Amino acid sequence: MLRKIIFFLLIFTLILPTAVMPLKSGIVLAEDKSILEQQLWALEQEIASFEKELASTKTQKKTLTNKINELKNKRTLLLKAVEATKIKIKGTENQIDKTENDLTKAQKELKVTQTEISQILRQIQQTDLMSSIKILFSSASLTDFFANLEQYLSLNDQLSKKMIEEKGMVKKVSEKINQLQDTKVDLTNLLSIQKLQEEDILETKSEHEVLLQKTLGKETEFQKIVSDQKKKAAEVRNRLYEMAAIKAITFGEAVKVAEWVTQYIKIRPALLLSVITQESNLGKNVGTCNRPTDPPEKHWKKIMKPERDQQPFLDITTELGINPEGQPLSCPMKDAKGKQIGWGGAMGPAQFIPSTWQGYKKRVMAVTGQNSANPWDIRDAFVASALLLAANGATSQTEVGEWKAAMIYFSGSTNKKYKFYGDSVIKRADQYEEDIKSLKAG
To answer: Given a cut of 50, is residue 368 above it in pLDDT?
Structure first.
């Protein structure tokens, strides 16, 4: 019996680590959460108002004044969106603090219970070593014998209850760990959204400055630009199309690759280009790990999830004859305190993590007809991205289907907390659609 008890105890003890995490201050209070929710609601109302105004501006006559107003409204909208995202990030960071404190408390309670179980086991072991006959002869009377026997049975009963209690605590700790991991993924996604919003703000500001530079603030010059289709087509065609971890190509060249891919995978070329742009904006911001001159803390073994991605990464680089040391990868996100949140390791223009790439490799090869698939190759990356989008609804070529596919590409869900990503992809895809028409017209 004792061996069985010890066996089960070891199983429960080894299920989860019992190391106690340090307590953190700043547990979010209900009123703090309420204040954040009120601030977020107010901002979302402002954002909705600006979105309507922006939509109205776009339908107005193409004049320099209207275009400038459109860009100003877009920038204001993006600034408000960044504010809203920062509030969501703050709320998520508070939630992480609270969950970590709850986890610490649960781990402490579990450790106390396990200590109590150990003490009961020692008492049972001492009693169990004595046979009932020895207990009988060592007892001064039958009353003492039954008292000793009752104590023995009581210890077994206590042990049974404590082990049930421990099982519940193990489950609670496990749930808290999972909750903490989910919340950290949430924070990583929100930080990514903030990066994209800030990138869009810079892009809008640059577009505004270039417009004023080209027109010199004159309506006549603006109308010349609008009416000169050949010049517009040339500018669109030769515009740089930047991608993560790969030398930029022209937009015209990128369109050709996208159109080649979408002959086989029936999604809009404009959508594919938009998603790659969005991912590369993320890659441009965080794809700065594992480069030859990076410090040790940016090495692939430090930034990549060990059990999920490290071996697939080695398999990919070995198969392609690429040295894993110095091959650019995305970095993990960091919170306001500079603490790493989640994992990095996304590769190439499509920003696939190694384990996901391995799942798509054969399908990419089936499309390209090659005997290998390289996440840092433009065509292979475009094919992989198109396959993932197509699998999640992009072949419908409707706004709803494409939005859903873009959202799943980003976070694996259609959680509206990250709707900026899907909205941004659709808006950019519509703009690229116009650019592609300009190329064909010119």
So the answer is: yes
Alpha helices in 228-374, H assignment, sequence order: 229-238, 251-264, 269-286, 300-303, 311-320, 354-368
Q: Domain boundary at 227, 253, 287, which?
A: 227
d(CA 175, CA 193): 27
- Domain range holding 281? 228-442
* Angle 47-415-349 from CA coordinates, rounded to 5°: 90
SS3 content of the chain, % helix, strand, coil (to 5): 75, 5, 20
Where does residue 204 rank: exposed (0-12), middle (13-18), buried (19+ CB within 10 A)? Answer: buried
pLDDT, tens digit, 9 for 90 and up, residues 386-429: 999 999 999 999 999 999 999 999 989 999 889 989 999 999 99
Residues 189 and 204 in one domain: yes
Using the predicted structure, report yes or no on whether residue 221 has a pLDDT greater than 60: yes
Provide, rounded to the nearest whole percent, the portion of the chain with pLDDT above 70.
81
Residues 233 and 184 in one domain: no
Nearest to residue 77, comparing CAs of 91, 56, 96, 98? Answer: 56
Are 344 and 310 spatial neighbours (Cβ–Cβ below 8 Å)? no
Token duo for residue 21:
């995490």
Distance CA 346, CA 331 (A): 8
pLDDT digits (tens, 9 = 90+) for 76-130: 888 888 888 888 888 888 888 888 888 888 888 888 888 888 887 877 776 654 5
- Among candidate residues 206, 227, 248, the one where a domain is terminated: 227
Q: Please give the Cα distance from 403 to 409 (Å, whole number).
A: 10
**Four-residue CA torsion sign, 322, 325, 327, 332:** positive
Give the residue carrying structure tokens 């003492």: 144
Q: What is the secondary structure of 167-230 as a DSSP string?
A: HHHHHHHHHHHHHHHHHHHHHHHHHHHHHHHHHHHHHHHHHHHHHHHHHTT-HHHHHHHHH-HH
For 155, residues 6+ apart whose C-beta sits below 8 A from its C-beta are 120, 123, 124, 127
Is residue 286 located within the same domain as residue 335?
A: yes
DSSP string, 413-432: S--GGGHHHHHHHHHHHHHH
* pTM for the full predicted model: 0.67
Q: What is the pLDDT of residue 130?
A: 53
